Amino acid sequence: MREDTAPLNKYFSLPKVELHRHLEGSLRLTTMLDVARQHGVTVPASMYNLSGLVQVQDQDPMTFTNFLDKFKTLRLFYKSPDVIDRVTREAVEDAAKDNVRYLELRFTPVALSRAEGFPLNDVMDWVVASAQEAAKKYKIKVGLIASVNRHESPELAEQVAWLAAEYIKDGLTGLDLAGNEAEFKSEPFYGIFREAKQAGLHITIHAGEWGPAENVSDALQNLSAERIGHGVRVLESEKATQLARELGAVFEVCVTSNYQSGVVGSLVEHPLPRMLEAGIKATVNTDDPSVSRITLSHEYQHVCEELLVPMDVLKNSVIDAVQAAFLPDVEKQKLVASLKKEMEL
Ligand code: ADE
Ligand code: ZN
Question: 257 CA to middle of ligand 2, Å?
Fold first, then answer.
Protein backbone atom coordinates (compact mmCIF):
# COMPACT_ATOMS: atom_id res chain seq x y z
CA MET A 1 0.00 0.00 0.00
CA ARG A 2 1.26 3.50 -0.75
CA GLU A 3 2.04 5.95 2.03
CA ASP A 4 -0.41 8.81 2.37
CA THR A 5 1.06 12.25 2.67
CA ALA A 6 -1.98 14.48 2.23
CA PRO A 7 -4.01 15.14 5.36
CA LEU A 8 -6.91 12.80 5.97
CA ASN A 9 -8.86 15.32 8.06
CA LYS A 10 -11.12 16.53 5.29
CA TYR A 11 -12.25 12.96 4.58
CA PHE A 12 -12.38 11.96 8.21
CA SER A 13 -14.76 14.79 9.02
CA LEU A 14 -17.11 13.88 6.17
CA PRO A 15 -20.01 11.71 7.36
CA LYS A 16 -19.55 8.35 5.64
CA VAL A 17 -21.68 5.39 4.60
CA GLU A 18 -20.23 1.90 4.11
CA LEU A 19 -22.20 -0.72 2.19
CA HIS A 20 -19.43 -3.27 1.67
CA ARG A 21 -17.26 -4.35 4.60
CA HIS A 22 -16.49 -7.95 5.60
CA LEU A 23 -16.30 -8.71 9.32
CA GLU A 24 -13.63 -11.36 8.63
CA GLY A 25 -11.51 -8.71 6.88
CA SER A 26 -11.83 -6.27 9.80
CA LEU A 27 -9.93 -7.97 12.66
CA ARG A 28 -7.46 -5.77 14.54
CA LEU A 29 -3.90 -7.13 14.65
CA THR A 30 -3.72 -6.47 18.39
CA THR A 31 -6.85 -8.56 18.91
CA MET A 32 -5.40 -11.40 16.83
CA LEU A 33 -2.29 -11.41 19.03
CA ASP A 34 -4.45 -11.53 22.19
CA VAL A 35 -6.51 -14.39 20.78
CA ALA A 36 -3.36 -16.24 19.74
CA ARG A 37 -2.00 -15.96 23.30
CA GLN A 38 -5.28 -16.85 25.01
CA HIS A 39 -6.22 -19.77 22.77
CA GLY A 40 -2.83 -21.12 21.78
CA VAL A 41 -3.11 -20.29 18.09
CA THR A 42 0.31 -20.90 16.61
CA VAL A 43 1.05 -17.77 14.63
CA PRO A 44 4.08 -15.46 14.76
CA ALA A 45 4.18 -13.63 18.08
CA SER A 46 5.18 -10.25 16.63
CA MET A 47 2.80 -7.78 14.99
CA TYR A 48 5.16 -7.47 12.05
CA ASN A 49 5.31 -11.16 11.24
CA LEU A 50 1.61 -11.72 11.85
CA SER A 51 0.80 -8.82 9.56
CA GLY A 52 2.47 -10.62 6.65
CA LEU A 53 0.04 -13.52 7.02
CA VAL A 54 -3.21 -11.62 7.37
CA GLN A 55 -2.64 -8.28 5.63
CA VAL A 56 -1.55 -7.46 2.08
CA GLN A 57 2.06 -6.21 2.04
CA ASP A 58 3.71 -3.90 -0.52
CA GLN A 59 5.97 -6.76 -1.64
CA ASP A 60 3.13 -9.29 -1.99
CA PRO A 61 1.96 -10.42 -5.41
CA MET A 62 -1.15 -8.35 -6.15
CA THR A 63 -3.34 -11.34 -7.02
CA PHE A 64 -6.72 -12.59 -5.90
CA THR A 65 -5.18 -15.86 -4.70
CA ASN A 66 -2.80 -13.99 -2.39
CA PHE A 67 -5.73 -11.82 -1.23
CA LEU A 68 -8.00 -14.80 -0.49
CA ASP A 69 -5.16 -16.68 1.24
CA LYS A 70 -5.24 -14.07 4.04
CA PHE A 71 -8.75 -15.28 4.93
CA LYS A 72 -7.49 -18.85 5.36
CA THR A 73 -5.17 -17.68 8.15
CA LEU A 74 -7.88 -15.44 9.61
CA ARG A 75 -10.09 -18.52 10.10
CA LEU A 76 -7.65 -19.74 12.79
CA PHE A 77 -8.87 -17.00 15.13
CA TYR A 78 -12.62 -17.79 15.45
CA LYS A 79 -11.99 -19.75 18.62
CA SER A 80 -14.89 -18.97 20.95
CA PRO A 81 -18.16 -17.05 21.27
CA ASP A 82 -16.17 -14.36 23.13
CA VAL A 83 -13.82 -13.91 20.21
CA ILE A 84 -16.71 -13.58 17.76
CA ASP A 85 -18.36 -11.08 20.11
CA ARG A 86 -15.14 -9.08 20.44
CA VAL A 87 -14.29 -8.88 16.73
CA THR A 88 -17.87 -7.88 15.89
CA ARG A 89 -17.90 -5.10 18.49
CA GLU A 90 -14.48 -3.86 17.40
CA ALA A 91 -15.48 -3.79 13.73
CA VAL A 92 -18.45 -1.58 14.63
CA GLU A 93 -16.32 0.60 16.93
CA ASP A 94 -13.64 1.07 14.25
CA ALA A 95 -16.25 2.20 11.71
CA ALA A 96 -17.83 4.61 14.19
CA LYS A 97 -14.40 6.07 15.05
CA ASP A 98 -13.84 6.71 11.33
CA ASN A 99 -17.04 8.80 11.31
CA VAL A 100 -19.04 6.17 9.44
CA ARG A 101 -22.69 6.89 10.20
CA TYR A 102 -24.25 3.84 8.58
CA LEU A 103 -22.40 0.55 8.26
CA GLU A 104 -23.60 -2.57 6.51
CA LEU A 105 -21.33 -5.22 7.93
CA ARG A 106 -21.30 -8.57 6.14
CA PHE A 107 -20.13 -11.76 7.78
CA THR A 108 -19.62 -15.33 6.61
CA PRO A 109 -21.45 -17.65 9.04
CA VAL A 110 -19.78 -20.74 7.56
CA ALA A 111 -16.29 -19.30 8.19
CA LEU A 112 -17.09 -18.29 11.76
CA SER A 113 -18.79 -21.59 12.62
CA ARG A 114 -16.55 -24.08 10.88
CA ALA A 115 -13.27 -23.47 12.73
CA GLU A 116 -14.57 -24.80 16.04
CA GLY A 117 -17.76 -26.53 14.90
CA PHE A 118 -20.16 -23.90 16.30
CA PRO A 119 -23.79 -24.29 15.14
CA LEU A 120 -24.70 -21.75 12.44
CA ASN A 121 -27.64 -20.39 14.39
CA ASP A 122 -25.43 -19.72 17.44
CA VAL A 123 -23.03 -17.76 15.24
CA MET A 124 -25.94 -15.73 13.88
CA ASP A 125 -27.17 -15.02 17.42
CA TRP A 126 -23.72 -13.88 18.60
CA VAL A 127 -23.03 -11.57 15.67
CA VAL A 128 -26.52 -10.05 15.71
CA ALA A 129 -26.43 -9.38 19.48
CA SER A 130 -22.88 -7.97 19.47
CA ALA A 131 -23.51 -5.73 16.46
CA GLN A 132 -26.71 -4.35 17.99
CA GLU A 133 -25.05 -3.60 21.32
CA ALA A 134 -22.02 -1.99 19.71
CA ALA A 135 -24.23 0.11 17.43
CA LYS A 136 -25.96 1.53 20.49
CA LYS A 137 -22.74 2.10 22.40
CA TYR A 138 -20.87 3.82 19.56
CA LYS A 139 -23.90 5.69 18.17
CA ILE A 140 -23.73 4.30 14.66
CA LYS A 141 -26.48 2.69 12.60
CA VAL A 142 -25.58 -0.88 11.64
CA GLY A 143 -27.17 -3.38 9.26
CA LEU A 144 -25.98 -6.95 8.74
CA ILE A 145 -25.58 -9.07 5.61
CA ALA A 146 -24.85 -12.81 5.57
CA SER A 147 -22.23 -13.86 3.00
CA VAL A 148 -21.82 -17.24 1.36
CA ASN A 149 -18.83 -18.16 -0.79
CA ARG A 150 -18.97 -19.43 -4.38
CA HIS A 151 -16.12 -21.82 -3.67
CA GLU A 152 -17.99 -23.47 -0.80
CA SER A 153 -20.96 -25.81 -0.74
CA PRO A 154 -24.34 -24.64 -2.09
CA GLU A 155 -25.99 -26.91 0.50
CA LEU A 156 -24.41 -24.91 3.32
CA ALA A 157 -25.30 -21.68 1.51
CA GLU A 158 -28.92 -22.79 1.44
CA GLN A 159 -28.87 -23.37 5.20
CA VAL A 160 -27.39 -19.91 5.74
CA ALA A 161 -30.01 -18.30 3.48
CA TRP A 162 -32.93 -19.93 5.32
CA LEU A 163 -31.48 -19.03 8.69
CA ALA A 164 -30.75 -15.45 7.60
CA ALA A 165 -34.39 -14.93 6.67
CA GLU A 166 -35.31 -15.64 10.31
CA TYR A 167 -33.12 -12.74 11.44
CA ILE A 168 -34.57 -10.03 9.17
CA LYS A 169 -36.45 -8.59 12.14
CA ASP A 170 -33.09 -8.30 13.97
CA GLY A 171 -31.49 -6.19 11.27
CA LEU A 172 -29.89 -8.95 9.20
CA THR A 173 -31.45 -7.82 5.97
CA GLY A 174 -29.21 -9.03 3.13
CA LEU A 175 -27.57 -12.03 1.50
CA ASP A 176 -24.28 -11.82 -0.43
CA LEU A 177 -22.39 -14.16 -2.74
CA ALA A 178 -18.61 -13.72 -2.28
CA GLY A 179 -15.47 -15.82 -2.79
CA ASN A 180 -13.53 -17.04 -5.80
CA GLU A 181 -15.33 -15.57 -8.80
CA ALA A 182 -12.53 -16.44 -11.21
CA GLU A 183 -12.92 -20.19 -10.82
CA PHE A 184 -16.47 -20.81 -9.56
CA LYS A 185 -19.75 -20.22 -11.37
CA SER A 186 -22.83 -18.76 -9.74
CA GLU A 187 -25.29 -21.18 -11.32
CA PRO A 188 -25.48 -23.61 -8.37
CA PHE A 189 -26.72 -20.65 -6.29
CA TYR A 190 -29.53 -19.38 -8.59
CA GLY A 191 -32.38 -21.11 -6.74
CA ILE A 192 -31.03 -20.15 -3.31
CA PHE A 193 -30.87 -16.45 -4.13
CA ARG A 194 -34.29 -16.47 -5.83
CA GLU A 195 -35.87 -17.99 -2.73
CA ALA A 196 -33.93 -15.70 -0.39
CA LYS A 197 -35.33 -12.70 -2.26
CA GLN A 198 -38.84 -14.13 -1.99
CA ALA A 199 -38.28 -14.60 1.73
CA GLY A 200 -37.63 -10.85 2.06
CA LEU A 201 -33.83 -10.66 2.05
CA HIS A 202 -32.09 -8.00 -0.03
CA ILE A 203 -29.43 -9.30 -2.41
CA THR A 204 -25.92 -8.14 -3.26
CA ILE A 205 -23.51 -10.19 -5.38
CA HIS A 206 -19.72 -9.98 -5.82
CA ALA A 207 -19.48 -9.92 -9.64
CA GLY A 208 -17.30 -8.36 -12.33
CA GLU A 209 -14.39 -8.24 -9.88
CA TRP A 210 -12.25 -11.30 -10.67
CA GLY A 211 -14.68 -12.44 -13.37
CA PRO A 212 -15.89 -10.79 -16.59
CA ALA A 213 -18.52 -8.08 -17.09
CA GLU A 214 -21.05 -10.74 -18.10
CA ASN A 215 -21.07 -11.84 -14.46
CA VAL A 216 -22.66 -8.47 -13.62
CA SER A 217 -25.53 -9.22 -16.04
CA ASP A 218 -25.73 -12.73 -14.58
CA ALA A 219 -26.02 -11.31 -11.05
CA LEU A 220 -28.74 -8.85 -12.08
CA GLN A 221 -30.74 -11.31 -14.19
CA ASN A 222 -30.28 -14.67 -12.46
CA LEU A 223 -29.41 -13.93 -8.85
CA SER A 224 -31.90 -11.11 -8.12
CA ALA A 225 -29.07 -8.68 -7.28
CA GLU A 226 -30.08 -5.16 -6.29
CA ARG A 227 -26.47 -4.19 -5.70
CA ILE A 228 -23.20 -5.40 -7.17
CA GLY A 229 -20.08 -5.96 -5.07
CA HIS A 230 -17.27 -4.31 -7.06
CA GLY A 231 -18.53 -4.78 -10.65
CA VAL A 232 -15.59 -2.70 -11.81
CA ARG A 233 -15.20 -4.68 -15.04
CA VAL A 234 -18.73 -3.74 -16.13
CA LEU A 235 -17.52 -1.23 -18.73
CA GLU A 236 -15.94 -4.09 -20.70
CA SER A 237 -19.45 -4.93 -21.93
CA GLU A 238 -21.80 -2.31 -23.39
CA LYS A 239 -24.70 -4.71 -22.77
CA ALA A 240 -23.88 -5.16 -19.08
CA THR A 241 -23.34 -1.41 -18.65
CA GLN A 242 -26.71 -0.64 -20.23
CA LEU A 243 -28.50 -3.25 -18.12
CA ALA A 244 -26.95 -1.92 -14.89
CA ARG A 245 -27.92 1.64 -15.85
CA GLU A 246 -31.49 0.66 -16.77
CA LEU A 247 -32.03 -1.26 -13.55
CA GLY A 248 -30.41 1.47 -11.44
CA ALA A 249 -28.11 -1.12 -9.85
CA VAL A 250 -25.79 0.34 -7.24
CA PHE A 251 -22.12 -0.72 -7.33
CA GLU A 252 -20.11 -1.18 -4.15
CA VAL A 253 -16.66 -0.13 -5.37
CA CYS A 254 -13.55 -0.87 -3.26
CA VAL A 255 -10.56 0.84 -4.87
CA THR A 256 -7.62 -0.38 -2.73
CA SER A 257 -8.96 -3.93 -2.60
CA ASN A 258 -9.17 -3.94 -6.41
CA TYR A 259 -5.53 -2.89 -6.64
CA GLN A 260 -4.35 -5.39 -4.05
CA SER A 261 -6.21 -8.31 -5.63
CA GLY A 262 -4.92 -7.53 -9.11
CA VAL A 263 -8.13 -6.25 -10.73
CA VAL A 264 -6.33 -3.01 -11.69
CA GLY A 265 -2.60 -2.53 -12.23
CA SER A 266 -2.43 0.66 -10.16
CA LEU A 267 -4.79 2.85 -8.13
CA VAL A 268 -4.80 5.62 -10.73
CA GLU A 269 -6.00 3.24 -13.44
CA HIS A 270 -9.12 2.39 -11.47
CA PRO A 271 -12.26 2.68 -13.63
CA LEU A 272 -14.44 4.37 -10.96
CA PRO A 273 -14.40 7.81 -12.69
CA ARG A 274 -15.38 6.20 -16.02
CA MET A 275 -18.14 4.21 -14.34
CA LEU A 276 -19.58 7.43 -12.93
CA GLU A 277 -19.30 9.15 -16.32
CA ALA A 278 -21.13 6.21 -17.91
CA GLY A 279 -24.09 6.82 -15.58
CA ILE A 280 -23.39 3.89 -13.26
CA LYS A 281 -24.34 4.49 -9.63
CA ALA A 282 -21.11 3.76 -7.77
CA THR A 283 -20.40 4.04 -4.05
CA VAL A 284 -17.06 3.95 -2.21
CA ASN A 285 -16.30 1.16 0.28
CA THR A 286 -13.42 -0.62 2.01
CA ASP A 287 -14.15 -4.37 1.48
CA ASP A 288 -11.63 -5.57 4.11
CA PRO A 289 -10.10 -2.67 6.04
CA SER A 290 -7.71 -4.77 8.12
CA VAL A 291 -6.54 -7.01 5.26
CA SER A 292 -5.97 -3.89 3.13
CA ARG A 293 -4.68 -1.71 6.01
CA ILE A 294 -7.05 1.16 5.23
CA THR A 295 -10.02 3.06 6.59
CA LEU A 296 -12.99 4.39 4.64
CA SER A 297 -11.51 7.90 5.04
CA HIS A 298 -8.42 6.65 3.14
CA GLU A 299 -10.64 5.38 0.36
CA TYR A 300 -12.51 8.69 0.07
CA GLN A 301 -9.12 10.40 -0.11
CA HIS A 302 -7.87 8.08 -2.87
CA VAL A 303 -11.03 8.66 -4.85
CA CYS A 304 -10.76 12.47 -4.65
CA GLU A 305 -6.99 12.97 -4.82
CA GLU A 306 -5.81 10.18 -7.10
CA LEU A 307 -8.85 9.38 -9.20
CA LEU A 308 -9.77 13.09 -9.25
CA VAL A 309 -13.44 12.56 -8.51
CA PRO A 310 -14.82 15.98 -7.43
CA MET A 311 -15.94 16.35 -3.81
CA ASP A 312 -19.57 17.07 -4.76
CA VAL A 313 -19.67 13.84 -6.79
CA LEU A 314 -18.29 11.92 -3.81
CA LYS A 315 -20.87 13.52 -1.50
CA ASN A 316 -23.66 12.53 -3.90
CA SER A 317 -22.34 8.97 -3.92
CA VAL A 318 -22.76 8.94 -0.12
CA ILE A 319 -26.43 9.83 -0.66
CA ASP A 320 -26.73 7.14 -3.37
CA ALA A 321 -25.32 4.67 -0.85
CA VAL A 322 -28.06 5.54 1.66
CA GLN A 323 -30.73 5.25 -1.05
CA ALA A 324 -29.41 1.74 -1.82
CA ALA A 325 -29.13 0.67 1.82
CA PHE A 326 -30.96 -2.45 2.89
CA LEU A 327 -33.15 -0.37 5.21
CA PRO A 328 -36.86 0.53 5.27
CA ASP A 329 -37.71 3.61 3.15
CA VAL A 330 -38.58 5.84 6.10
CA GLU A 331 -35.22 5.20 7.73
CA LYS A 332 -33.40 5.89 4.47
CA GLN A 333 -35.22 9.18 3.97
CA LYS A 334 -34.39 10.31 7.51
CA LEU A 335 -30.71 9.51 6.99
CA VAL A 336 -30.64 11.18 3.56
CA ALA A 337 -32.12 14.36 5.01
CA SER A 338 -29.64 14.57 7.88
CA LEU A 339 -26.59 13.76 5.71
CA LYS A 340 -27.61 16.23 3.00
CA LYS A 341 -27.90 18.94 5.62
CA GLU A 342 -24.55 18.08 7.16
CA MET A 343 -22.76 17.89 3.78
CA GLU A 344 -24.51 21.08 2.58
CA LEU A 345 -25.98 19.37 -0.50
N1 ADE B 1 -14.20 -11.99 0.53
C2 ADE B 1 -13.55 -11.00 1.15
N3 ADE B 1 -13.14 -10.06 0.26
C4 ADE B 1 -13.59 -10.47 -0.96
C5 ADE B 1 -13.52 -9.95 -2.26
N6 ADE B 1 -12.90 -8.79 -2.51
N7 ADE B 1 -14.07 -10.65 -3.25
C8 ADE B 1 -14.68 -11.82 -3.01
N9 ADE B 1 -14.78 -12.37 -1.81
C10 ADE B 1 -14.25 -11.70 -0.77
ZN1 ZN C 1 -16.16 -8.10 -0.69
Answer: 9
